[in-house]
Amino acid sequence: MTTTSAADRAPLTYGQLSVWRVMTDWPLDRWPETYLSTVVPVPPDCPLATVTKALHTLCARHESLRTRFVERQQHVMPVADGVDVAVVERPGATPAEAEAAGRERCGQPFDRAEEFARRFTVVTDGGRPAYAVIVVDHIVADGYGLARLRAEAAALMGADDPDGRRQLDETPARPVDLARLQRSAAQRPRREAALGHWRDLLRTLPQELFPVPDEAGHHPGRIEAVLRSPGARTGLGAAARRLGVPPQTVLLALTSLATAAVTGTEQVVHTLQSSNRFTAPWRTIVSSMNQYVPLALKPGAAPFARYVRRVHGAALKAYRLGTYDIDTVTGLVLTERGIVLGFDHFFNFMAHDVPGDPQGLGGGTRRIETTRPYRQIGPRLDVKVRGGPEMPLVVRADPGLLPRTGLHALLAWYDDELHRLATDGAATTDGLLDRCRSAVCPGAER
Question: pTM higher than 0.70, yes or no?
Fold first, then answer.
């Protein structure tokens, strides 16, 4: 790990800058809704001192946990002698209740320039540490970074966490090094290619379709539901293997059809999240690597097998061009279209454990549950796919776009189609789209 005797200053990385700019005009009292949180069970007989030491070690290893963020700059502070940890007694708390207790301490927005944008809380049961809760501003870590913090914390507290033990043997990459690289002369061709991609999008896409104005996501009020289906997970793995594309691409293609049905448009523009972290040394970094990446798709009438391959190629190109200076792009959009850049129709796939060689189809009963989203602002349609045996597929929506009955029907459609696509080699985009319209918008003209 690296320590400094004074603040190490560098520009913001492009990912950090994107978080900063995207949230700039959101109502300040809504910022805490966007914070990320995770719960780490404390092993039995692990004392509070060991939990505190584990959290201090995280701060020493990962500079984003001891960074202050000032306009377009990150100031990495030296490793302190200790770390602030709140202790909250919650007898018999569940993990969800412990997480809620940790988030209660973040009701007021972090002052990024004056404090570290994270909170540590230890939830006790009868005085014994039961959970450690980590809450971070999105500028500190993305979902992958938070998962790393969770695994490392578990291992440091003595839990049997092989990923955490392996990660503790690695030296984490530094956000300040990434920021300097991104702005270096060596990266100029990559910066120019990304800006050229945005110019192409503005030249070829209708103004009413792209981009959406930034204010579109500022109005509070979102509903959310989740599909849990082991059978859908198995079906997705089988479909991906049969079609010769990753599981992510199959679900992205389905989501483009769902979005077309919900919005009533023939062409859609999705927002993907490109982290570009999966190359050495950046796979070890804890920071906000994500940037919003627009992906334009026009399904048309075609065999689904052909369409999904087209989606795969288009998504790969979008991801490759997904590292950019958002201030430069925002200026381009303002000049070309006269609006402040916004994003909508999000798709984020994190179920990287979908088996590539599923054994048998079906299995398990699907459950569709109404959940309450932390975030009540942001995109009007947001699809997130999580890992695990039930592959939770979460959809958050503006009820003005998709009412609750339509939301549940949409999740049932996902489940039905993933089961069908496991074996149906004759599936077509128009057939899938018609079934989605019938489910989500019954009685609508097709």
Answer: yes
